[in-house]
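Dear Dr. H.,

I hope your travels went smoothly. While you were away I took the liberty of generating a structure for the chain from your last submission, since the lab meeting agenda had it listed for discussion. I wanted you to have the full record in hand beforehand rather than looking at slides cold. The sequence, exactly as received, is reproduced here:
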Amino acid sequence: MSPAGCSHVNSFKVENWKQNLRVIYQCFVWSGTPETRKRKAKSCICHMCGAHLNRLHSCLYCVFFGCFTKKHIHEHAKAKRHNLAIDLLYGGIYCFMCQDYIYDKDMEQIAKEEQRKAWKLQAFTPTMVSPYQYTMTGVGEKYSTWEPTKRELELLRHNPKRRKITTNCTIGLRGLINLGNTCFMNCIVQALTHTPLLRDFFLSDRHKCEMQSPSSCLVCEMSTLFQEFYSGHRSPHIPYRLLHLVWTHARHLAGYEQQDAHEFLIAALDVLHRHCKGNGCAGAEHPRSDGGDDNGKKANNPNHCNCIIDQIFTGGLQSDVTCQVCHGVSTTIDPFWDISLDLPGSSTPFWPLSPGSDGSVVNGESHVTGTTTLTDCLRRFTRPEHLGSSAKIKCSGCHSYQESTKQLTMKKLPIVACFHLKRFEHSAKLRRKITTYVSFPLELDMTPFMASRMIPLPSSHGGNIQMAQDCLRILWNHLYRQVTYYSI
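The corresponding predicted structure, in token form, is as follows:
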């Protein structure tokens, strides 16, 4: 569809078209009176398959109802050359020539007028579904805007550090329209727009695009998104441009199917990182080389990039593989944006539970007996794992393939740490969701899971002098890393 709008609407705008459109909205879409609702329930069925679901659409040129999902309305439009149809659930106009829902100012005005009339005809009474959810026993989708009460305003005034209540104050609270099945995207967007460092970066206009086509830059769109969120507008925002760019740069997320929020987060961070990488995020200085060793540089900057995404979300994951014969340790450090944690209830053994499972306080949180905590998941993630005889590695000290143990720890923590809980378990026979409850502490101490806290001491071999020297070397490296870590 061109920016000027749909050119096929004019074929519908003939004599009495407004009155005909009003009748369709009154009888088959909003249905404000009990009589029209009964007529809609009886007559609005697909003329081909007899179903009343599957996104029923009505032809605007003749009396025909057809399923949009099964493309019965498409077949009618092709056969009769009736190019326009109306969605009987939401009232949107679809053009089969443009292959998209269209916007027309005159049609939109009629739709709004008839919807308001239906709301007045049907009395709205709130019905409580749950203690936190209400539904309106009316027609359409009428939502009232939230306004703080006097009591709430008084409470907010006593917390000036969190929110400053003034006439021009805006704190970035704004809704997002769901574009089909895009709730997975909306929840990630809300999290990103309320990340303090990311918010300060974009609101201070730090990004200067150097791409040949700025309209295809996801960072530019994110900058626009932050401006929209903190503009003071209260109407919901429609992130259609963001969705289109994600579809363009992450093809596996394209389409109207429901997607995984974690997968969207990683894909969005990857595209933002690639679009930022070309210009260093407009003025962000790259780390200087002050003569330190390469391992130190890699630990402090695992992705070798100083863009805003890596500054906030990138950490360093250290993997220590220890030979079971000579106890030589091979260490690698890889960048990460998230940590995937196993949950109890899966086929993999889960050990150990938090020592506070008896009701004591662990990591700033009191636990109920048997409750799984985020600390439990992290403890399992960082525990040593014996690789076994089927996964032998070639030891650089023994110069032969030997059994080994592997341990993952955090070399560098990101400013914003993302934890992914593996809620789905896949096997050859089944695919199920793990519903284990996981307790999150308000404050999480990551010190026990840092590489500087792990001392892989070799086993005792009598009075072997070489072993003693290795112990001293490991202890010295541990102390050095401790001082370096806390000095940061």
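Two observations you may find useful: The CA atoms of residues 424 and 430 lie 10 Å apart. Confidence is low (pLDDT under 50) at residues 124-144, 279-299, 356-362, 455-488.

With kind regards,
E. W.
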